[in-house]
Write a structure and sequence with these properties.
Elements lengths: L1 H14 L19 H5 L12 E8 L5 E8 L5 E3 L4 E3 L4 E7 L5 E4 L15 E9 L2 E9 L10 E5 L12 E3 L10 E2 L13 E3 L6 E5 L5
Parallel strand pairs: 1-13, 8-11
Antiparallel strand pairs: 1-5, 2-3, 2-4, 2-6, 6-7, 7-8, 8-12, 9-10, 9-13
């Protein structure tokens, strides 16, 4: 699997796609540019705005979590993008992300440091994507083998005035049975056409991200 991951990293360096595979927990997918073919016909080029977007993080789990944003580079380095944010059960907070960054992952174990982020866990993943004159943010839920399946994740694009509220909501929970269309659960999904990948080609968009949404 490692050699396959290196090959994917080389593709990233060549074409500049928006997500980087995580070798540590066998999360070896790419957000594919083919999503652009589904949207380019009806979307227009969007003006560049502020260089950050906001993740509105809601902790509906039964215990306090420490959230943070991490980045996996093309050479498989794990970089912390912010200090851990403590969110009590039922609480929420905001975390900023750079619009043009790729390979971003929102983790609920940020207090354990960057090295621990290679362990399987529930994640919300984000990355910039551009295609045929349109741009936006790719996003997915990752709950790979070995993750705590009781910690589900829901990602909701928020309205940016350019139609982002019409972009797809992704939710992956134990109660729903972890459908392949909603989240990454194993690397073999690459051969299934990456059904869990989604791109909102509506420019810079904020997101509401809920951990343990079924606990509401």
């Amino acid at each position: 699997m490692f050699s396959k991951a290196i090959a994917l990293a080389a593709v990233l360096a060549t074409v500049g796609v928006n997500a980087i595979p995580s070798a540590g927990h066998n999360h070896q997918h790419l957000h594919r540019r083919h999503h652009g073919l589904q949207h380019a016909a009806r979307d227009t080029t969007l003006e560049a705005r502020d260089d950050t977007y906001t993740l509105h993080v809601h902790n509906q789990c039964s215990d306090t979590k420490y959230f943070g944003l991490f980045e996996i580079t093309s050479d498989f380095q794990m970089n912390s993008k912010c200090e851990p944010t403590e969110i009590a059960s039922g609480g929420d907070a905001q975390i900023s992300a750079n619009y043009k960054d790729i390979g971003l992952r929102l983790s609920a174990t940020a207090d354990q440091g960057a090295a621990a982020q290679w362990a399987p866990q529930s994640l919300a993943e984000f990355g910039y994507s551009g295609w045929s004159g349109v741009e936006g943010i790719a996003y997915d839920v990752s709950m790979m083998t070995g993750s705590d399946k009781k910690i589900g994740v829901k990602i909701e694009p928020l309205d940016n005035g350019n139609g982002s509220s019409d972009c797809e909501v992704k939710v992956c929970t134990e109660q729903d049975g972890f459908p392949l269309s909603q989240c990454w659960t194993n690397p073999d999904q690459v051969s299934d056409g990456s059904p869990a990948d989604t791109v909102c080609y509506k420019g810079k968009t904020d997101f509401k991200v809920t951990f343990c949404p079924s606990d509401n």
